[in-house]
Amino acid sequence: MSSDAVPHLSTSQPQKQQTQRRLSLRLYLIRHGETESNVQKIVIGQSDSPLTVKGVEQAKALGEQLAESNRSFWRIYSSDLPRAQHTAQLIIDKHSPILPVRFKPRLRELARGAREGLPKVLSEMEAFSERERLGIMDPIPLFETPGEGWSRVSDWLDEVMEDAAQESGYVVPDNSDNDSKDTPNDGDKVLNVLVISHSGLLRIFLERLLGTQRLRQHPDARFENKNGVPALSIPNSSLTILNIDLSPREIEISNHLDDNDAKNHQSWVASDAVLIEQLTSTEHYSRMQAAALSH
Protein backbone atom coordinates (compact mmCIF):
# COMPACT_ATOMS: atom_id res chain seq x y z
CA MET A 1 0.00 0.00 0.00
CA SER A 2 1.26 3.48 -0.83
CA SER A 3 1.97 5.88 2.00
CA ASP A 4 -1.09 7.99 1.11
CA ALA A 5 -3.54 5.17 0.50
CA VAL A 6 -6.78 4.81 2.42
CA PRO A 7 -7.09 1.29 3.87
CA HIS A 8 -9.23 -0.88 1.65
CA LEU A 9 -9.51 -4.40 0.34
CA SER A 10 -8.76 -4.98 -3.30
CA THR A 11 -11.65 -5.53 -5.68
CA SER A 12 -12.46 -5.34 -9.38
CA GLN A 13 -14.24 -2.39 -10.99
CA PRO A 14 -17.84 -1.91 -9.80
CA GLN A 15 -20.81 -2.84 -11.95
CA LYS A 16 -23.51 -4.03 -9.55
CA GLN A 17 -23.98 -3.02 -5.92
CA GLN A 18 -24.75 -5.36 -3.03
CA THR A 19 -26.99 -4.18 -0.18
CA GLN A 20 -25.01 -3.82 3.06
CA ARG A 21 -25.79 -3.10 6.65
CA ARG A 22 -23.54 -0.85 8.68
CA LEU A 23 -20.50 -2.36 10.35
CA SER A 24 -18.12 -0.43 12.60
CA LEU A 25 -14.85 -1.08 14.38
CA ARG A 26 -14.42 0.71 17.69
CA LEU A 27 -10.69 0.81 18.31
CA TYR A 28 -9.37 1.26 21.85
CA LEU A 29 -5.89 2.56 21.03
CA ILE A 30 -3.43 2.30 23.93
CA ARG A 31 0.20 3.28 24.28
CA HIS A 32 2.32 0.95 26.42
CA GLY A 33 3.12 1.87 30.04
CA GLU A 34 6.10 3.98 31.07
CA THR A 35 9.52 2.39 30.48
CA GLU A 36 12.95 3.02 31.96
CA SER A 37 14.07 4.57 28.66
CA ASN A 38 11.06 6.91 28.71
CA VAL A 39 12.20 8.19 32.11
CA GLN A 40 15.79 8.55 30.90
CA LYS A 41 14.61 10.26 27.67
CA ILE A 42 16.31 7.66 25.51
CA VAL A 43 15.05 6.78 22.03
CA ILE A 44 13.76 3.20 22.06
CA GLY A 45 12.29 2.59 18.61
CA GLN A 46 12.22 -1.13 17.92
CA SER A 47 14.72 -1.86 20.67
CA ASP A 48 13.23 -2.42 24.08
CA SER A 49 13.17 -1.23 27.66
CA PRO A 50 11.29 -2.73 30.63
CA LEU A 51 8.29 -1.09 32.22
CA THR A 52 8.93 0.94 35.36
CA VAL A 53 6.92 0.43 38.54
CA LYS A 54 4.80 3.37 37.42
CA GLY A 55 4.36 1.78 33.99
CA VAL A 56 3.03 -1.39 35.59
CA GLU A 57 0.63 0.65 37.74
CA GLN A 58 -0.57 2.58 34.68
CA ALA A 59 -1.41 -0.61 32.78
CA LYS A 60 -3.17 -2.16 35.77
CA ALA A 61 -5.22 1.01 36.32
CA LEU A 62 -6.33 1.00 32.68
CA GLY A 63 -7.20 -2.68 32.89
CA GLU A 64 -9.37 -2.02 35.93
CA GLN A 65 -11.16 0.87 34.23
CA LEU A 66 -11.93 -1.22 31.15
CA ALA A 67 -13.10 -4.13 33.31
CA GLU A 68 -15.41 -1.83 35.31
CA SER A 69 -16.97 -0.60 32.07
CA ASN A 70 -18.02 -4.18 31.25
CA ARG A 71 -16.93 -3.74 27.66
CA SER A 72 -16.56 -6.93 25.70
CA PHE A 73 -13.88 -7.09 23.02
CA TRP A 74 -14.08 -8.90 19.73
CA ARG A 75 -10.27 -9.04 19.47
CA ILE A 76 -7.14 -7.85 21.25
CA TYR A 77 -4.05 -6.87 19.27
CA SER A 78 -0.62 -5.82 20.47
CA SER A 79 2.77 -4.93 19.13
CA ASP A 80 5.11 -7.88 19.60
CA LEU A 81 7.76 -5.73 21.35
CA PRO A 82 8.16 -6.78 25.02
CA ARG A 83 7.04 -3.46 26.55
CA ALA A 84 3.76 -3.65 24.66
CA GLN A 85 3.32 -7.36 25.40
CA HIS A 86 3.80 -6.71 29.13
CA THR A 87 1.29 -3.84 29.04
CA ALA A 88 -1.24 -6.01 27.19
CA GLN A 89 -0.94 -8.81 29.72
CA LEU A 90 -1.42 -6.46 32.68
CA ILE A 91 -4.55 -5.01 31.05
CA ILE A 92 -6.23 -8.27 30.13
CA ASP A 93 -5.48 -9.85 33.53
CA LYS A 94 -8.36 -7.72 34.82
CA HIS A 95 -10.85 -9.17 32.32
CA SER A 96 -12.97 -12.28 32.37
CA PRO A 97 -13.05 -14.20 30.19
CA ILE A 98 -9.53 -13.48 28.96
CA LEU A 99 -9.17 -13.30 25.19
CA PRO A 100 -5.95 -14.35 23.48
CA VAL A 101 -3.72 -11.48 22.40
CA ARG A 102 -2.71 -11.38 18.74
CA PHE A 103 0.86 -10.06 18.65
CA LYS A 104 1.61 -8.22 15.41
CA PRO A 105 5.00 -6.93 14.18
CA ARG A 106 3.06 -4.40 12.08
CA LEU A 107 2.05 -2.65 15.33
CA ARG A 108 5.67 -2.06 16.36
CA GLU A 109 7.06 1.40 17.00
CA LEU A 110 8.73 3.19 14.11
CA ALA A 111 12.31 2.05 13.67
CA ARG A 112 14.48 5.03 14.66
CA GLY A 113 17.79 4.15 13.03
CA ALA A 114 21.01 5.57 14.49
CA ARG A 115 19.10 7.38 17.26
CA GLU A 116 17.99 4.16 18.97
CA GLY A 117 19.60 3.81 22.38
CA LEU A 118 20.76 7.44 22.44
CA PRO A 119 19.30 10.62 24.04
CA LYS A 120 16.21 12.07 22.36
CA VAL A 121 17.86 15.49 22.04
CA LEU A 122 20.21 14.17 19.34
CA SER A 123 19.30 14.55 15.68
CA GLU A 124 19.90 11.75 13.20
CA MET A 125 23.22 13.25 12.08
CA GLU A 126 24.30 13.91 15.68
CA ALA A 127 23.46 10.30 16.54
CA PHE A 128 25.87 9.02 13.89
CA SER A 129 28.62 11.22 15.34
CA GLU A 130 27.80 10.10 18.88
CA ARG A 131 27.98 6.43 17.91
CA GLU A 132 31.41 7.04 16.42
CA ARG A 133 32.54 8.97 19.52
CA LEU A 134 31.34 6.19 21.84
CA GLY A 135 32.94 3.50 19.69
CA ILE A 136 29.64 1.71 19.10
CA MET A 137 30.47 -0.91 16.47
CA ASP A 138 27.04 -2.56 16.24
CA PRO A 139 25.23 -2.28 12.89
CA ILE A 140 23.04 0.81 12.59
CA PRO A 141 19.44 -0.16 13.45
CA LEU A 142 16.71 -0.04 10.81
CA PHE A 143 15.22 3.38 10.07
CA GLU A 144 11.60 3.92 8.93
CA THR A 145 9.90 6.99 7.53
CA PRO A 146 6.37 7.94 8.67
CA GLY A 147 5.11 6.78 5.27
CA GLU A 148 6.63 3.33 5.79
CA GLY A 149 5.10 3.14 9.25
CA TRP A 150 1.68 4.07 7.86
CA SER A 151 2.02 1.47 5.12
CA ARG A 152 2.40 -1.41 7.55
CA VAL A 153 -0.22 -0.26 10.08
CA SER A 154 -2.75 0.38 7.30
CA ASP A 155 -2.06 -3.15 6.01
CA TRP A 156 -2.91 -4.38 9.51
CA LEU A 157 -6.16 -2.37 9.45
CA ASP A 158 -7.05 -3.85 6.06
CA GLU A 159 -6.65 -7.32 7.54
CA VAL A 160 -8.81 -6.50 10.57
CA MET A 161 -11.55 -5.01 8.39
CA GLU A 162 -11.59 -8.07 6.16
CA ASP A 163 -11.83 -10.41 9.16
CA ALA A 164 -14.58 -8.30 10.72
CA ALA A 165 -16.65 -8.39 7.54
CA GLN A 166 -16.20 -12.13 7.04
CA GLU A 167 -16.80 -13.17 10.66
CA SER A 168 -19.79 -10.86 11.10
CA GLY A 169 -21.48 -12.20 8.00
CA TYR A 170 -22.72 -8.72 7.18
CA VAL A 171 -23.34 -9.29 3.49
CA VAL A 172 -26.96 -9.03 2.37
CA PRO A 173 -28.05 -10.14 -1.11
CA ASP A 174 -29.59 -7.51 -3.35
CA ASN A 175 -33.33 -7.61 -2.62
CA SER A 176 -34.35 -5.21 -5.38
CA ASP A 177 -36.39 -7.94 -7.10
CA ASN A 178 -38.41 -8.99 -4.03
CA ASP A 179 -40.07 -7.61 -0.91
CA SER A 180 -38.10 -9.62 1.68
CA LYS A 181 -37.29 -7.91 4.95
CA ASP A 182 -34.28 -8.07 7.26
CA THR A 183 -34.53 -10.65 9.99
CA PRO A 184 -34.78 -9.55 13.66
CA ASN A 185 -31.05 -10.17 14.05
CA ASP A 186 -30.20 -7.71 11.29
CA GLY A 187 -28.95 -4.18 11.95
CA ASP A 188 -25.84 -2.19 12.63
CA LYS A 189 -23.00 -3.87 14.45
CA VAL A 190 -20.03 -2.49 16.40
CA LEU A 191 -16.96 -4.63 17.15
CA ASN A 192 -14.72 -3.45 20.01
CA VAL A 193 -11.01 -3.97 19.33
CA LEU A 194 -8.26 -3.41 21.92
CA VAL A 195 -4.93 -2.29 20.42
CA ILE A 196 -1.68 -1.84 22.37
CA SER A 197 1.06 -0.06 20.43
CA HIS A 198 3.49 2.86 20.57
CA SER A 199 3.35 6.65 20.45
CA GLY A 200 5.05 7.14 17.08
CA LEU A 201 2.91 4.61 15.25
CA LEU A 202 -0.34 5.65 16.96
CA ARG A 203 0.36 9.29 16.09
CA ILE A 204 0.76 8.41 12.40
CA PHE A 205 -2.37 6.25 12.53
CA LEU A 206 -4.49 9.08 13.98
CA GLU A 207 -3.03 11.77 11.72
CA ARG A 208 -3.63 9.76 8.55
CA LEU A 209 -7.16 8.66 9.45
CA LEU A 210 -8.40 11.89 11.02
CA GLY A 211 -6.19 14.58 9.54
CA THR A 212 -3.79 16.86 11.41
CA GLN A 213 -6.17 19.81 11.33
CA ARG A 214 -8.99 17.79 12.84
CA LEU A 215 -6.72 16.61 15.66
CA ARG A 216 -5.53 20.14 16.38
CA GLN A 217 -9.12 21.27 16.81
CA HIS A 218 -9.96 18.58 19.34
CA PRO A 219 -10.37 20.12 22.84
CA ASP A 220 -8.36 17.35 24.53
CA ALA A 221 -5.43 17.44 22.10
CA ARG A 222 -2.03 18.31 23.54
CA PHE A 223 1.07 18.84 21.42
CA GLU A 224 4.81 18.55 21.94
CA ASN A 225 7.79 19.66 19.91
CA LYS A 226 9.23 16.95 17.64
CA ASN A 227 12.23 18.24 15.69
CA GLY A 228 10.70 21.69 15.54
CA VAL A 229 7.25 20.46 14.49
CA PRO A 230 4.17 20.27 16.77
CA ALA A 231 3.19 16.63 17.27
CA LEU A 232 0.24 15.11 19.09
CA SER A 233 1.29 14.09 22.60
CA ILE A 234 0.42 10.47 23.37
CA PRO A 235 1.30 9.76 27.04
CA ASN A 236 2.18 6.34 28.40
CA SER A 237 -0.87 4.09 28.87
CA SER A 238 -3.14 6.74 27.33
CA LEU A 239 -6.41 5.62 25.77
CA THR A 240 -7.92 6.93 22.55
CA ILE A 241 -11.25 5.56 21.35
CA LEU A 242 -11.72 5.72 17.60
CA ASN A 243 -14.78 4.60 15.68
CA ILE A 244 -14.32 3.49 12.07
CA ASP A 245 -17.35 2.88 9.88
CA LEU A 246 -16.81 0.26 7.21
CA SER A 247 -18.61 0.84 3.93
CA PRO A 248 -19.09 -1.86 1.31
CA ARG A 249 -17.41 -1.21 -2.00
CA GLU A 250 -19.35 -2.07 -5.13
CA ILE A 251 -18.28 -5.33 -6.76
CA GLU A 252 -18.35 -6.71 -10.26
CA ILE A 253 -20.61 -9.65 -10.94
CA SER A 254 -19.29 -11.23 -14.10
CA ASN A 255 -20.81 -13.98 -16.21
CA HIS A 256 -18.99 -16.66 -14.23
CA LEU A 257 -19.76 -15.23 -10.78
CA ASP A 258 -23.24 -15.60 -9.32
CA ASP A 259 -24.62 -13.53 -6.43
CA ASN A 260 -23.54 -16.04 -3.77
CA ASP A 261 -19.98 -16.08 -5.09
CA ALA A 262 -20.00 -12.31 -5.25
CA LYS A 263 -20.78 -12.07 -1.55
CA ASN A 264 -17.49 -13.84 -0.82
CA HIS A 265 -15.68 -11.14 -2.80
CA GLN A 266 -17.25 -8.25 -0.90
CA SER A 267 -14.78 -5.44 -0.35
CA TRP A 268 -14.70 -3.00 2.54
CA VAL A 269 -13.24 0.47 3.01
CA ALA A 270 -12.89 2.70 6.06
CA SER A 271 -15.50 5.29 5.14
CA ASP A 272 -15.26 7.51 8.19
CA ALA A 273 -13.16 7.79 11.33
CA VAL A 274 -14.70 9.64 14.26
CA LEU A 275 -13.14 10.24 17.64
CA ILE A 276 -15.52 9.24 20.38
CA GLU A 277 -15.36 9.56 24.14
CA GLN A 278 -11.63 10.06 24.62
CA LEU A 279 -8.40 11.30 23.03
CA THR A 280 -5.12 10.24 24.69
CA SER A 281 -6.82 10.05 28.10
CA THR A 282 -4.88 9.08 31.25
CA GLU A 283 -7.87 9.48 33.55
CA HIS A 284 -7.51 5.87 34.72
CA TYR A 285 -4.10 6.56 36.28
CA SER A 286 -5.21 9.86 37.83
CA ARG A 287 -8.14 8.06 39.45
CA MET A 288 -5.84 5.39 40.87
CA GLN A 289 -3.51 8.02 42.31
CA ALA A 290 -6.40 9.92 43.85
CA ALA A 291 -7.75 6.73 45.41
CA ALA A 292 -4.32 5.92 46.88
CA LEU A 293 -4.05 9.39 48.45
CA SER A 294 -7.47 9.10 50.04
CA HIS A 295 -6.47 6.02 52.05
UniProtKB/TrEMBL annotation:
Keyword Hydrolase among record annotations: yes
Highest taxon listed in the record's lineage: Eukaryota
Positions contributing to substrate binding: R31, H32, G33, E34, T35, E36, S37, N38, R83, K120
Cellular component GO terms, alphabetical: cytosol
SMART domains: PGAM (SM00855)
Alphabetically ordered keywords of this record: Hydrolase
Gene Ontology molecular function: fructose-2,6-bisphosphate 2-phosphatase activity
Pfam families in alphabetical order: His_Phos_1
One GO-annotated biological process of the protein: negative regulation of glycolytic process
Keyword Isomerase assigned: no
InterPro entries per the UniProt record, alphabetical: His_Pase_superF_clade-1, His_PPase_superfam, PG/BPGM_mutase_AS, Phosphoglycerate_Mutase
UniProt EC number: 3.1.3.46
Region (Disordered): 1-20, 167-186
Active site: H32 (tele-phosphohistidine intermediate), E109 (proton donor/acceptor)
Name listed for the protein in its UniProt record: Fructose-2,6-bisphosphatase
Source species of the chain: Fistulifera solaris (Oleaginous diatom)
